[in-house]
Each structure stands twice: as structure tokens, then as C-alpha cells.
Amino acid sequence: MKKKILNCLLFLLLLQGVELQASDGVLFNEHWRFYKGDISGGEMPACEDTNWRLLNLPHDWAIEGPFDIKYNARCGGLPFHGTGWYRKTFKAAQAWDGKVVRLAFDGAMSEAKVWVNGHFVGEHPYGYIGFEVDMTPYLRLGEDNVVAVKLTPRDLSSRWYPGAGLYRNVWLRVDEPVHIAQWGIYITTPTVTDKKAVVQIQSTLENRQRKSGIYKLVHSVFDKSGKEVASIANQINLKGETNKESIVYTDVVEPQLWDIETPDLYILKTNVYSGDKLLDTSTTRFGIRKIKFTKKGFFLNGKQVRFQGVCLHHDNGPLGAAFNRRADERKLQIMKEMGANAIRTSHNPPASEFLDLCDELGFVVLDEAFDEWLKPKVPNAYSNYFKEWAERDLTDLIKRDRNHPSVIMWSIGNEILEQSDKQQGFTVAKFLADICRKVDPTRPSTAGFNYYPAPFNFNMAQQVDIAGMNYKPAVYDEVQGSYPDLLIYGSETSSCTSSRGVYHLPIEKYLKHQSLQVTSYDLIGPPWAYPPDMEFHFLEKNPRIMGEFIWTGFDYLGEPTPFGGKDNSTNGYWNSDWPSRSSYFGAVDLCGLPKDRFYLYQSQWSDKPMVHILPHWNWKKGMNIPVYVYTNCDEAELFLNGKSLGKRVKGRDLTTILVDFKYYKEKTFASKYRLSWDVPYEPGTLTVKAYKAGKLIAEKTMTTAGRPARIALIPDRKSIQADGQDLSYVTVRIEDKDGNLCPEADNLVNFSVEGAGHFKAVGNGNAATTESFCVPYRKVFSGMCMLIVQSDKAKKGQIRVTASSKGLKKASLEITSE
Ligand code: GAL
């Protein structure tokens, strides 16, 4: 009954879109004790943990640092490896007598081992996929019980920052012996027309008692307004200690289709009865939509959609890998603003709430399982578990995620080293792609291939339904010619690098500038990289290619390419350019502040009239400054201090950029995607006016800034929820007395956060600094930094933020927590 009320409540919340639960159950995140290090007997109830740190999950133990050259810069230069213990003492209710009581971990980084009252109950090595443990046999009802989790993430176990700890949600599930199995509801829509959708509901009922019985399942479908629009019931004869699947169909009349622009959702509520007694309730959100992959491209509800995609790692910069719904939501909103319509969860399963957000915001998703199979890229990563775990992990990933309308493909791997192995590449690809086809026949399998032509010659690429190509735009036509039946898209593209607000002049190819920053003219990358313009060009030439997924939407912790090569003096770690320790690949920086490249993509991906101008306008008199303009308008005119420097027409006036790309013969590329002027520098204002069909529709001005005079605080939201989780991201700008951004300022700013919230983290997008994310002060980088403020739980009221810096006018801000 309690669960029924809980589920009703949950259902109401679901309909209001307030909070979605990843799995039926209640959150089990509060009051954990944490110890960093190994403890003999840490699993035993008697272990003294009262002096361990008390905290709430999700928690990433490594983000607090310190950054240190002794850690691998490739993984963020943070102390993620080693042993960590979590323990929680909880009362097991008498009412749980006769019930099945389980804990579901949405992800534990990594090599998790779990005990209940000293009894081993389960383990899971791969940190990115969830698992359940059954506590039932070991619980002491009416008494205190202890769950203990030991995690041992290993050094050299990742090519990026994985985070560490119980970094996703943990759920408690208390079920009757007969209940819906984990991930036991699978909804598909085999027929979809404007008039009617056929909804297929496959449910797995689990019986944990000896007794067999007859059970009734009642399925009801609700639309987004909460109206019941369909229902169907079926009966199941279930033997003792077995699971049984059943399939029923129901119709939704005049369905509201899930789409990128209108991501309408439905909810299925399934009740399980024995006679009149309600045994279990499960709520599942789903969407009604049609996907089709053809030689002409990808079609969503009959309309062609080209992937304007971004690859995203799972961390949230200064917050580390710990799941936070608002941080993920903001990440996706920023990507949407850039014009992205597709996400690739590189190179691992995301938190399932991330997919909830993609469902709600309207993104299509390529859900990726692995970065390696049997051949290791780094010594201690997944290849160690592949043989034993790959089938289960891939199956679980698909079962967990197959009700999300946003998910359109399963990726079985990224740049797998088996590509160069004639036999093994084919065999393993077939094995994994067959799992995808079996567990979810409604979506194609894919993988990202970068060793062209080997995996195509070896019949490996042909084992997946759709072949992803990493960094090969120049051979799209060749591949289509050689393999006319293959469906292809750019699974990873560009890998252009830059540091927000940093410009090196004169423009040239500094692969590794001594500042450990990369110029933001959007030209530079490692040998396999190329400017975004080239991908745009080749996609235009090859309309059959389904689109691209850029590397990457956001900067992420670790992989500081082009810096951070192998350093033999520090165990061969990737930290030779210390403190360079996070990526330069993002279109936005680690804090979510847009770099220039954000606007280059926006000019290509968005119809909303826009114009962007770079670099900044604080130079030395007499310098010759290359000025680039990114716009989706037809033409643009540049004015220096009111004087026209001429109009440039898109498509006619090309910008010659330097390229150095392995697969492209030429050393220059004439880009129609950026307009340019060479401007002899004079202080003042540089304005660009952009026109469409002769009409002025977008304009931007840069003004030479004077000396830093004041701080400006700009919150992304002035009102947040008092749930102890919600965040306000406050952009901090150093401005001159007239409010112009000081583009080269690096002032140290001190923060205080009081009232109904607290300081959560701070960052500035500088990829080469060891400053902590967890202290309430920060130097700005290129004039800006980001303060992240969090609400306190159940404390409504004002959050007062103040910022001060030596010699500058203070700033303050109030955020409402309600
Ligand atoms: C790709 C790889 C990504 C990332 C990227 C950087 O080869 O798949 O994970 O390393 O290169 O350019």
C-alpha cells in the first residue's frame, strides 16, 4: 500500500515533469559514510565508521583533488584511483517481512563489491552500468543493518577522467515476492500513423516464491496532460521461482509523436494484481515515434533529420562525474542553443536520467557501450572484463535504455583496436551486434571506425547495421562507391582544439604553444583533426551521409591533446605538459562558456539569425588583426569606429585557412563558412552587421576595454528549487568602468554564499591550471569564471552571493530558493 501511494505520488511528479526516477524505488542516497583508503574488515558490521566522512550521494571522491603531476593528466590529473569504502547503516522495517529487498546502484566507479551485514551480495567491475544486489537473505528486520561498498578504480584504466565513487543514484526497492523484474517493461510502437499507434507492451513478471499463481497485469497509458488514453489487461499463470514474459497490444488514437521539436511523451503505468490485491506498480515513460535509416538518410516520423551531433563525456567539469540533473540539463540546453540535435554518449553508458533529459528536450541519442573490447588501449580498462562481462553489460544497457524515444542506435564500440585484426574484429562485432538485434530489434547497431579501410575490407564494419566513420570526411564518396549498401555517418568529426578567449597572432599552426593554450581561431588540432569547415564541406558534397557528431560539445576532464604527451620521467604518464590536464576539444569550455567554435556550429546548424565576431578588440596599435565572422545570414559588413571595412558575401567571399590533415592533400582550404577581414588595429569599436535578403537582422559590437574596474555576476537562473540538488550557474565577468569585458583579465575573485544555499564549485575554463574547483575563490580566465551555487535541502529563502577582488568594485546577487 505504501508503495502504491509512493508510486501514485511519483506518477504525479512524472506528469509534471518534476523529477523522474531512474527505476521504481526510493532514493537511498543520504547519510553514507565514506573512507578514502583500504580498511581491513570494512565490510563487517562491527567496523567503526563513526569518524568516516558523512555525505550524501552522488559523490565523486576525486574531484576535490588535489591536481598533481603524479596523477595521469590524461585522466584529469586527479586522484581517482585507489580504494574507497562507503557504508550506510539503516533500519530494516518489520513490514519488509516476506518481501524482496534490493539495492540498485545506477553506477559505481569502479570494480564495486557489495556486502550486507558482512555477507557478500554482489560485484560489478564496469563503472558505467548499473546493477542490483539482493539484500533479502541477510537483513535483520527491526534492527540496524549495514551495507558496505568497496570500490577500487585502477590507475591507467581510462583515456579520460572517469570519476570515482558512488557517483550515480542508489535506489532501495522493496517488492512483494511477485513483481515486475528489473527493466522488465519493454514498450515499442510497431505501427505508427497519424490516426493510430499500436503500442506493444512486453512485461517480465518475476516470482520469487515457491508457490505458483495466476496474476493480472493492468496497463494504462496516459498522455502528457495526465489523461488516460489506452488500457489493456492480461493474465499470467506463473510457476514458482520463475520469470515469465507476456506481450499485449493497445492502441493510442491520434498519437502525439515524439520529435526533436515536439518531444511529447506518454506514461505507461502497469499494476500487478493477485485477485484484488495490488502487488506491484511500475511507471515507464515512453514516446511514440517512427525511425527509419535508408540510403537517403535518417528519417524521424517521415522527415529527414541530419545529425548535428555532439560527442559528450559524462563529467560536468568542476562538479566532476557525480550525477546532477540540473548540470546535465544545462549541458543539453547549451548544446541545443548551439543547434545540436543529436548526442553520442562517448564512450560509455550515461546516467539513465541523462536520457530522460534527452527525451524531454528533444535530442536523438547514440547510446555507446564500450571504448575497448579484448585488445587494451590502456592496461587496466575494460579489456580485462570483456570476456566475462560484455554480454551482460551490453544486454543490461539495452534493457535499461530501450524505452527512451531519444535513443535511436546502440553503439557497440569506439575505435576498437580489433579493427586491424582480420578475424577477431569481424567475430566480436558480429557477437555484439547480434546481442543488440536480439535484445532490441527496433534500433540499429553501430560503431565508430577510424582505421579505414581495414574494418571495411575485413567485413567488420558490415556487421553493424550502420557504420560510423571517425575523422574521414575526405573518403566519404570513396566508401559510398566501394560499399553502396552501407549506411554511413560521421561518428566522430573535427577534433578542433581551442582555449576560450585566447588568440595567438600572427595566425599560424602552433600545435603546442608555450602558454599551454590553443588559439581560438578554430584551426588547430592533432594530426587526425581538421577544422569544422571541412566536415561541413564534405557533408554537403555527400548528402547520403547521415550527419556528424563533433568531438566534442563540451570540454571534459582529461585528454589535454595537443598537450600532455607521454612523459618518461613520470612512469610514462601522459603529463609532459603539466599542468595541462583537461581537454581543448569542446565548442564550450569546461564551465559551459561558449568558445568561438560554438558560434561556427551555430551558424551552420541553427536558423535563428546570428552573427559572431572574433577575436577580442584589445590589441597594440599598428597590429594587423585577422577578424573572422560566423553568421547564418547572407552577408555581413564590418565597421571600425563607424567606418565601413567592406561587405563580405557568404558563398562568394571565401576565407583561406591552413589545414594539415592526413587524409587531405592540400595544405589550405577555401572556406565559405567563415567571413574574414584583415584589420589594422585601432582601439574603439568593431561592429559587424549581418543581412538576410538585404535586411539587417543581426549585429554584434566589440569595444576596446579599459582597465578592470568592477565585477559582474550573471546567474543562469535567479530562482532554483530548495531540494539540496538544484544549481545556479553564475557567470563572473571582469569589466571596465563602462561594462566592457576585459578580455585578458586574470583577477582573483573571492566569493561568499550565504542564506538558503551554499558554494558548490568554481571553474574558469583554463585547461592548464591546478587551481581547485572546491574553494570559494578563483582567478578569472580570459576575463571570466563560473561560480556554481547549490540550494540547501528544504530551506526556502534567499541565497546571497557576493564577489570581491582587490581594487575592483564588489558585486552581489540574490537567488531565490523555493
Ligand atoms: C578519437 C577518440 C576520442 C578522442 C578523440 C580526440 O580518436 O575516439 O575518444 O580521443 O580521438 O581527438
Automatic annotation (TrEMBL):
Keywords: Glycosidase, Hydrolase, Signal. Residues 622-698 form the DUF4982 domain. Residues 1-22 form the signal peptide. Residues 179-289 form the Glycoside hydrolase family 2 immunoglobulin-like beta-sandwich domain. Residues 711-813 form the Glycoside hydrolase family domain. One of its GO terms (biological process) is carbohydrate metabolic process. GO terms for molecular function: hydrolase activity, hydrolyzing O-glycosyl compounds. Residues 81-160 form the Glycosyl hydrolases family 2 sugar binding domain. Residues 292-447 form the Glycoside hydrolase family 2 catalytic domain. Belongs to the glycosyl hydrolase 2 family. This is DUF4982 domain-containing protein. It comes from Bacteroides xylanisolvens. The lineage of its organism: Bacteria, Pseudomonadati, Bacteroidota, Bacteroidia, Bacteroidales.
